[in-house]
Amino acid sequence: MAIDEGLAQRIRERLGDVPGITEKRMFGGLAFLLNGNMAVGVHGDELIVRLRPDDTDSALARPGVRIFDLTGRPMRGWILVEPSALAEDAALADWIDQGRTFAATLPPK
C-alpha cells in the first residue's frame, strides 16, 4: 500500500527536532517511533495515532476518527484519523502530540 508522502512529510516537520524519533515501515505503512515505541504513523492516506487506552472513546467521538483494526481484533489506544480531519496543521499537531506524549510514557525498546 502506498502511503501519503505529503502527510509523512508534515509529520517529519513536526517531529524533526525531537530526540529519539525514528521511522520504520510497519503495518503496511510508515511508523514514527519515540525511543522504539510507536507514537504516530501513516497508513495509506490516514494518520495512525497511539493513545492511552483510556483515551480511545473520547478520540473516537471526534469527527473523522475510527479504530485502527487490521486483524479483526481492534485494540484500544490505536486509532486512524482520516485526511479531512487533518487539513489544518493545528489538528495534525494535536494528534501528533497526543501520540508522542503517550509513547514517552513507555519504557524505551
Description:
With 109 residues, the chain is of the alpha+beta class. The chain has one domain: Yope Regulator, Chain: A. It is 29% helix and 28% strand. The protein contains three helices and six strands; from the N terminus they run αββββαββα. It has helices spanning 5-15, 56-60, 89-104; strands at residues 21-26, 29-34, 37-43, 46-50, 65-67, 78-81. The protein has a six-stranded antiparallel sheet with strand order 1-2-3-4-6-5. A hairpin with a 2-residue loop joins β1 and β2 (29-34). α1 (5-15) packs across α3 (89-104). The relative contact order is 0.21. It comes from Kitasatospora atroaurantiaca. This is TfoX-like protein. Residues 14-99 form the TfoX N-terminal domain. Pfam families: TfoX_N. InterPro entries: TfoX_N.
Top keywords for this entry?
single chain, 109 residues, alpha+beta, Yope Regulator, Chain: A, six-stranded antiparallel sheet, 3 helices, 6 strands, TfoX_N
CATH class: Alpha Beta
Number of helices: 3
CATH structural architecture = 2-Layer Sandwich
Q: Tell me what portion of residues adopts beta-strand conformation.
A: 25-35%
Average pLDDT rating: 95
Structural class: alpha+beta
As a whole number of angstroms, the C-alpha radius of gyration is 13 Å
Largest β sheet strand count, sense and barrel closure = 6 strands, antiparallel
